[in-house]
Amino acid sequence: MFETVRRHPLKVLTHVAQDPFDAFTAFQEEFLSRFESKDPVRYPADPNWDAGMREAMGIAPDFARAEFATLWDEVIGELRERGMKVGPGSFHAWNDGDAGFVRAIWTLIRFMRPTTVVETGVAHGMTSRFILEGLERNGEGRLWSIDLPPINPVTRQEVGVAVATETLRRRWTYIAGTSRRRLPVLLDRLGQVDLFIHDSMHSGRNVAFEMETAWPRLRAGGAMVVDDIDLNPSFGRFVERHPEHPSFVCTAEPVTPDLRRFNQKGLFGIVLKAPLRLEH
Ligand SMILES: C[S@@+](CC[C@H](N)C(=O)[O-])C[C@H]1O[C@@H](n2cnc3c(N)ncnc32)[C@H](O)[C@@H]1O
């Protein structure tokens, strides 16, 4: 952030003038994150998270795996053809959603057929693209994405580029700003959410805030997917506080070897909100 101020002082001033409260919040989040431990949290990852999640939800074993693999290759190919760098560190210092994380989301979208999906963190829009592709195939549902766009004008232009077609954008609402300020307002407006995905700022403070804010709004049978949980202890603390809800510590997956992330590190987490199958 401080480097951005030095390199783009006018852009920073414009940004602050547009929404001083949000600019202050962004600064505050960044500043406070500097006091957090940078030691990774060594969660024991569950290599069978996929089977565990499917079993808990009653999803058939090979559900959606083949269609995901085809679409993943298609999307990666399309983005590279358009000259985009994809994968780890491809958007400023941020990573595009990796294959394991995105496949978990894809499976949930196709199985749950959610009407209301909220995510934080867009960058190139890899997760947004797959969520919207899934909703389109389902023929129902809408995605709200909260994202603090970078001040750097070059990277800023790349926000959401993976969501290229108008057909997909019809189901999408992009909300620019910090999740700390935008998420409570959005959730108040929506009332209830089927699926919540955290992929914005991965400070312990922000992850805890997003999970605790989204949880009461998540419907029973809904799911929460949280990226990069090994960067801070917030996911573990959350599941300790909510032991009655099934949770999984998941490893990233090398569907395409060069998109593998962090060499076995870079865990993501899933929490399913019980009761999973409501009696009628
Ligand atoms: C890891 S990237 C998102 C990757 C994306 N989900 C994908 O799969 O391609 C994180 C994004 O969150 C944004 N961000 C950073 N801090 C934020 C905050 N406090 N609130 C909302 N978004 C934030 C970053 O600008 C960046 O676009």
Envelope shape: globular
Mean pLDDT: 90
Instruction: Please give the count of helices.
Output: 12
Distinct small molecules: S-adenosylmethionine
Order of helical and strand elements: HHHHHHEHEHHEHEHEHEE
* Spatial ordering of strands, largest sheet: 3-2-1-4-5-7-6
Task: Note the quaternary state here.
Answer: single chain
Strand content: 5-15%
- Going by helix content, strand content and strand pairing, the class is alpha/beta
Structure, explained:
This protein has 280 residues and is of the alpha/beta class. The chain has one domain (45-272): Vaccinia Virus protein VP39 (Rossmann fold, 3-Layer(aba) Sandwich), CATH 3.40.50. The chain contains 12 helices and 7 strands. The protein has helices at residues 2-7, 9-18, 20-33, 49-57, 65-81, 99-112, 126-138, 153-156, 166-169, 179-190, 204-214, 234-241, and strands at residues 116-120, 142-147, 172-176, 193-198, 218-226, 247-250, 268-272. It has a 7-stranded mixed beta sheet, with helices on both faces. Helix 2 (9-18) crosses helix 3 (20-33) and helix 5 (65-81) crosses helix 6 (99-112). It is globular, with a radius of gyration of 18 Å. The N and C termini lie far apart (52 Å). The mean pLDDT is 90. Bound molecules: S-adenosylmethionine. S-adenosylmethionine binds at residues 29, 94-97, 120-127, 146-148, 150, 178-179, 199-201, 206.
